[in-house]
Amino acid sequence: MLCFAAIVPHAPQIIPTINRDNLAKTQKTIRSLKSLSKSLSEIRPESLMMISSHGPVLQDAFSLNLAQEYSGDFKTFGDLTTKLEFDGDLELNYKIKERFETTFSDVPLTMITEPNLDYSFSVPLYYLSGKYKEFSLIPVGSCALDYQKHLDFGQKLKEELVLSNKKIGLVVSANFCYCSDEQAPKNASLGKKFDQKLIKLIQDKQTDQFSGLDQKLVKKFGETGLPPILILMGLLKNLNYKTEVISYENPFGIGQAVINFDLNSNISA
Fold first, then answer.
1. Who's near 257: CB < 8 A, 6+ residues apart?
2. Average pLDDT of the chain?
């Protein structure tokens, strides 16, 4: 049963131990993540699936990261003390793998084992697990296949998740445009407008419109978060939900959106 869904940023600059001196520039994002953490603690999912375009990313197949335990830290950024630890969901991982091998063999899915989480998982989890962390983690990776394949993967993934008796949360870790006001103010302005276009498509549930996006602009503004977002949009397609853009800002030249998808209508149905 799907009970929670969100899009969150993963810029290391939002972690206090990494960027304490400039943390005030991204307070809107931090407040939104803390608010989302409160919602997560109230819903209390048993499993949390996180989708990212970073970490172990394969060219021609989506990845399902299977491990008994996962750990993450910020040593790369100079924080030698913070450590995050989560249990894996072996049962649901295997059920997803079996479903794709037997029913959805046209969508390539590879199982990998990487217990060390990269920052695209660790940064959001630092905040999301602040009030509740009694969930099992399922890290999923996007790939280099086209947008339609990502939508298809999300739709087929949904067929297994909605059958589960577990309460399952979905989190996409994705930054939006990479454009610095200081280095290229014109590009930064255009990048922010492009972000707003993407967010409007998400709000209006215009899933099929993503495939028509100008790929030159996607590349120009570094919209690497699109593939995992498309997986989520495919997964949410035809479900009843309400979209809430909690915040958007562009500190440090990185588009950061915190978006919540209210699935309560599905839970009560």
1. 7, 9, 176, 195, 199, 245, 247, 248
2. 92
